[in-house]
Design goal:
This protein is α+β, with helices and mostly antiparallel strands and 167 residues long. The protein has 4 helices and 7 strands. The strands form 2 sheets. The chain has a 4-stranded antiparallel sheet, sandwiched between helices. It has a 3-stranded antiparallel sheet with strand order 1-2-3, with no helix packed on it. InterPro entries: PPIase_dom_sf, PPIase_Pin1, PPIase_PpiC, WW_dom, WW_dom_sf.
Length: 167
C-alpha cells in the first residue's frame, strides 16, 4: 500500500520536498500519482503544515560524514569524484573515532576538516531536526543517543557517519 514516497525538509532551502528512497527520485512538487489524503499520510507530512503535531521531539546533532563511491552523490566540497569503497570510508571513520575518543571538541575539529557534508563549515552541526527529516538509519541512531553521546558508525544512502547528539 505504501507509495514509497516520503516528505523531507531541504537543509539548504528550509522547505519540504518529496523523496522516494527506492528510486532516489526527488521533487519539489507532489508526485502526480498521489491523492491529497495519501500525501497527508506520508512519512514527514508534518513538514507540509510548517509545524509538528505538538508531540514531535526535536533534537540537535552533529556528524562526521565520509562518502564512498556508492553514496547517493559521490562528491563533496573536498573531492569532485569520490572513488573509495564503503569499507575504506568505514576505516577512515574508525581512525577519526580513535582520534576524538570522547572529546566533543576534537570531534568538531575533525568534522570541520574532514566531513564530506557541507555542515563541515559548522563543525558538523546539522541544527535542530525532528523525525521524518533525516534518512531513517541516521534518524534512528540520532534519536537513540543521549545528549553528549556518540553513535557508532551508521550507514545511509549518503555515506557513513558518526553522530554526536548535542541537544
Amino acid at each position: 500500500m505504501s507509495s514509497g514516497w516520503e516528505i523531507r525538509m531541504s537543509n539548504s532551502k528550509g522547505i519540504p520536498y518529496y523523496f522516494n528512497p527506492s528510486t532516489k527520485q526527488s521533487s519539489w512538487d507532489a508526485p502526480s500519482e498521489l491523492s491529497e489524503d495519501q500525501i497527508k499520510s506520508l512519512p514527514g507530512s508534518q513538514h507540509l503544515t510548517g509545524g509538528s503535531s505538538g508531540d514531535a521531539e526535536t533534537i540537535t546533532a552533529s556528524h562526521l560524514l565520509v562518502k564512498h563511491k556508492d553514496s547517493r552523490r559521490p562528491s563533496s566540497w573536498k573531492e569532485t569524484n569520490i572513488t573509495r569503497t564503503k569499507e575504506e570510508a568505514t576505516d577512515i571513520l574508525r581512525e577519526y573515532q580513535a582520534q576524538f575518543g570522547t572529546s566533543c571538541k576534537t570531534f568538531e575539529e575533525l568534522a570541520s576538516l574532514h566531513s564530506d557534508c557541507s555542515s563541515h563549515s559548522q563543525k558538523g552541526n546539522l541544527g535542530p531536526f525532528s523525525k521524518g527529516q533525516m534518512q531513517k538509519p541516521f534518524e534512528d541512531a540520532a534519536f537513540a543517543l543521549q545528549v553528549g553521546e556518540f553513535s557508532d558508525i551508521i550507514s545511509t544512502d549518503s555515506g557513513v557517519h558518526i553522530i554526536l547528539r548535542t541537544a
